[in-house]
């Protein structure tokens, strides 16, 4: 079956912990869930692909499952890009249209954006997204779409989301090896935002925090536009590793203990509670069982949570957006399931915080309405929105050409 004929959109989130392939169809302009496959990721280190073969194999298995559930062949996909190599840059540039007032055309808007993007990018940097924040026409700022307005000088404030060309290419190569042609790339922070933020939050100012296994992707919105993007080098696995070291248990057991008994607020855990550690021979590495105060886990986890949100606060401050979070921050990604994180976020950032669950697509199974699937679901929404926008732009262009030809005969 041909993917194009069926109006399918497929996305791939090759995360450090899991690889997800998610398929949806567009029917009467609405996205409908068709299928998905999730596999534990392989060959990844610190959010980067360290071994192509095992990483591609995991993606391939996820794609095969998604194909089976969707009852359709998958040939192409849109892939998410995350990791500390992703960086955001703000830039400003514009064009003059001569001394006489003129109506702004779409081509002039494109020319102004091109001028603003021609900032010197360091070598091996690729532009993932060109996101206009506002246009400034002569002295009037805050314009979202200047086409049809009249003026003499058009400027634009632009946010550029950039990534390492080499790293992006290895993700694409990996998808190719898994049998998927890559049509487009999306920054995972922007994708997750698409799935969990409301338009009111984007207007008031909000920071989306996607806490994955090895990194945390950020996307800050203010007055409806993207204001800042960054990636922090801490994720949920750092909490697990701290527990493994502190409790002298295997990483596998630490992961289980974190999920069952972990809390990032020491005082939220009753002082007398005790838990058994090392009892499960399959994952304890042969250690004998012993009792540990449950608070001891929180005493290990809380400093890591404080480190994460202190780093976040410093990053937002240096990006000039710390005071712009009228709607606070929204935590998503698997790491956002960690108990007590919201309290740490609120006390360190001094803004309200909530956990972001992705909006469910029509017919989507309930098990996907979890923070760890925000980026994948957001990629679908983002790709669909881009397709709709492109189609309407093409339609506009076609109507314009038709009018020109109609006038010339
Ligand atoms: N219930 C839970 N409590 C605490 N942590 C959890 C829970 N569930 C998942 N996590 C953590 O979430 C992390 C995985 O999140 P996610 O699936 O979003 O990562 P990923 O997208 O594969 O990774 P990345 O985005 O860094 O590439 C792991 O560190 C895991 O321990
Ligand atoms: Mg992720």
Architecture overview:
With 409 residues, this protein is an alpha+beta fold. It has a domain at 87-162: Dna Ligase, domain 1. It contains eleven helices and 20 strands. A hairpin with a 2-residue loop joins strand 4 and strand 5. Helix 6 packs antiparallel against helix 9 (294-318). The protein is globular, with a radius of gyration of 24 Å. The chain starts with 7 loop residues before the first strand and ends with a helix. The structure holds adenosine-5'-triphosphate (ATP) and magnesium ion. Magnesium ion binds next to loops.
Strand-helix topology:
Blueprint (H helix, E strand, L loop, with lengths): L7 E7 L3 E10 L2 E11 L3 E2 L2 E2 L2 H19 L5 E6 L5 E10 L5 E2 L2 H12 L7 E13 L2 E4 L6 E2 L1 E12 H13 L3 E7 H9 L2 H6 L1 E6 L4 E7 L2 E8 L3 H12 L3 H11 L12 E4 L3 H4 L5 E4 H25 L10 E4 L8 H9 L3 E3 L18 H35 L1
Parallel strand pairs: 1-6, 6-13, 14-19, 19-20
Antiparallel strand pairs: 1-2, 2-3, 4-5, 7-12, 8-11, 9-10, 9-12, 14-15, 15-16, 17-18
Helix pairs in contact: 1-3, 4-11, 6-7, 6-9, 9-10
């Amino acid at each position: 079956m041909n993917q194009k004929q069926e109006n399918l959109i497929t996305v791939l989130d090759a995360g450090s912990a899991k690889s997800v392939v998610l398929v949806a169809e567009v029917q009467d302009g609405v996205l409908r869930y068709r299928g998905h496959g999730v596999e534990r990721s392989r060959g990844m280190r610190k959010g980067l692909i360290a071994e192509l073969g095992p990483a591609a194999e995991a993606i391939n298995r996820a794609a095969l499952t998604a194909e089976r559930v969707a009852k359709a062949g998958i040939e192409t996909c849109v892939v998410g890009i995350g990791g500390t190599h992703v960086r955001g840059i703000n830039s400003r540039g514009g064009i003059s249209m001569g001394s006489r007032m003129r109506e702004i055309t779409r081509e002039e808007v494109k020319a102004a954006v091109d001028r603003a993007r021609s900032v010197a990018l360091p070598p091996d940097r690729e532009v993932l997204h060109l996101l206009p924040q506002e246009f400034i026409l002569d002295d009037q700022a805050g314009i979202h779409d200047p086409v049809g307005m009249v003026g003499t000088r058009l400027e634009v404030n632009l946010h550029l989301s950039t990534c390492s060309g080499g790293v992006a290419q290895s993700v694409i190569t990996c998808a190719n090896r898994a049998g998927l042609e890559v049509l487009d790339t999306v920054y995972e922070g922007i994708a997750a935002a698409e799935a969990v933020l409301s338009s009111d939050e984007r207007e008031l100012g909000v920071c989306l925090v996607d806490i994955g296994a090895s990194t945390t992707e950020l996307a800050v919105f203010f007055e409806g536009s993207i204001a800042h993007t960054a990636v922090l080098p801490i994720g949920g696995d750092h909490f697990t590793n701290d527990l493994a070291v502190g409790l002298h248990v295997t990483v596998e057991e630490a992961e289980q203990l974190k999920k069952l008994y972990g809390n990032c607020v020491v005082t939220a855990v009753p002082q007398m509670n005790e838990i058994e550690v090392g009892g499960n021979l399959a994952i304890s590495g042969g250690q004998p069982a012993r009792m540990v105060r449950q608070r001891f886990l929180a005493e290990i986890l809380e400093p890591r949570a404080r480190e994460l949100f202190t780093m976040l606060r410093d990053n937002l401050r240096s990006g000039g957006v710390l005071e712009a979070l009228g709607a606070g921050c929204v935590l998503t990604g698997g790491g956002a399931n960690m108990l007590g994180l919201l309290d740490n976020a609120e006390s360190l950032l001094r803004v309200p915080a909530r956990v972001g669950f992705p909006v469910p697509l029509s017919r989507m199974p309930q098990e996907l309405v979890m923070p760890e699937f925000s980026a994948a679901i957001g990629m679908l929404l983002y790709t669909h929105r881009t397709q709709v926008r492109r189609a309407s732009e093409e339609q506009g262009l076609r109507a314009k050409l038709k009018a020109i030809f109609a006038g010339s005969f």
